[in-house]
Amino acid sequence: MKTAWLVGQKVGHFVAVLFLSSLVLAGLLWFSPGSPGKARDPISWEGAAIGDRVCVDARSCGVLRSMPEPAEGEVRSSDGFTFVKEYVKVDLGVEGQKTLERGQILVPGPSFPSWFLGTFWLGVLKWDIGPAYTGDPVLGVVLLGARQTIPIVFGALAAAVVVTLLLVAFLTWLPFPSMRGLLRTVLLVLSISPVFVLGFLMTKAGVLPHPVNWWVAPLACVVILFVGDSNLGELLLQLENEYRFLRSRDYIHAAGLRGASLFKHMLPGLLLPLGTMSAAKVAFLLGSVVIAENIYAVQGLGTLSLKAATKPDPLLLLTLTVFITGVVALVSLIRDVLEIFIDPRIRKTAAEGA
């Protein structure tokens, strides 16, 4: 029961993070210049009636007072070829009544609750949010981009973890402290290079062909992501600190006295902190992938995010952000749940608190 309660808390936290983050972004989008609450679409006169609420521009709305009819002195054409302008009257309240052409009248935009809860979240549950700026379904566009981005991000994370473990093992074995310090410094200097600088250098130095082949581009993204923006350097420093801490533990000293492999005994103790570091890195990698994908023209979530922001397409942008937030929160949830099952101290602390 204690374990189930702890897991339930973590799942509740995951759902709360997902909903609140979407609420914050939806609020920012609502008050942005490309707000989804603005009137954009022309009205369909077949279903319109006097007394309906209509808009004359993105923000000014009022009540429809007349149906489309020609101006005074003009008559409707019966030949089907002569174009006659038709006008309607709209009561804008304090601004008074205005007469405008029928083509200037717009359908009012949705309210925030109906757009956020009805269009977006109900659409997520029904698996039909609506069309993106391309005309394709929003969820289909996001999932298509995720097929490119998710392997790149987790490939970069896996590469960074494996390379870091190998480097820690090598630095531990290296018998010369001065060489360890020099190698560590070189790696840290290389790692603090921004992703866009590494991408530029790999292309201009002839390491990669230009233009980059479609199958080479994802691999190039993986390389610059796991090395650049201090990703490799931070993991190396944090893992080395964990190694030094474990190295001072009594059971590790005992294993050393028996002549056993220290790294083999220390690896289980490194898994939990390594999982914590990896979960934290996912968010940074998902941010950096926007740059990497644009350098090598990979049509993933990063490229989609930029296009959704420039079009603008608020619904696609909100869906992309919630999806990316969900990936980050899901990785943290998996890490927390595994930690509950692996580390008995967490269950003991929860039992004592209860």
Written description of the protein model:
By secondary structure, the protein is mostly helical. Among the domains are: 53-104, no CATH class; 138-310, MetI-like fold (Orthogonal Bundle), CATH 1.10.3720. It is built from twelve helices and five strands. Strands 1, 2, 3, 4 and 5 form a five-stranded antiparallel β-sheet that branches. α1 runs antiparallel to α11 (314-342), α6 packs across α9 and α9 packs antiparallel against α11 (314-342). The longest helix has 36 residues, at 138-173. The radius of gyration is 29 Å and the shape is elongated. The model has no long low-confidence stretch (mean pLDDT 81).
Offer a few descriptive terms.
354 residues, single chain, 5 strands, 12 helices, mainly alpha, MetI-like fold, 64% helix, five-stranded antiparallel beta sheet, elongated
Summarize the structure.
By secondary structure, the chain is mainly alpha-helical. It contains twelve helices and five strands.
Task: Give the SSE map.
Layout: H1 2-30, E1 53-55, E2 61-64, E3 69-70, E4 86-91, E5 97-101, H2 112-126, H3 138-173, H4 177-191, H5 195-204, H6 216-227, H7 231-247, H8 250-257, H9 262-295, H10 301-310, H11 314-342, H12 344-353
Antiparallel strand pairs: 1-2, 2-4, 3-4, 4-5
Helix pairs in contact: 1-11, 3-6, 3-7, 3-9, 3-10, 4-7, 5-6, 5-9, 6-9, 7-9, 9-10, 9-11, 10-11
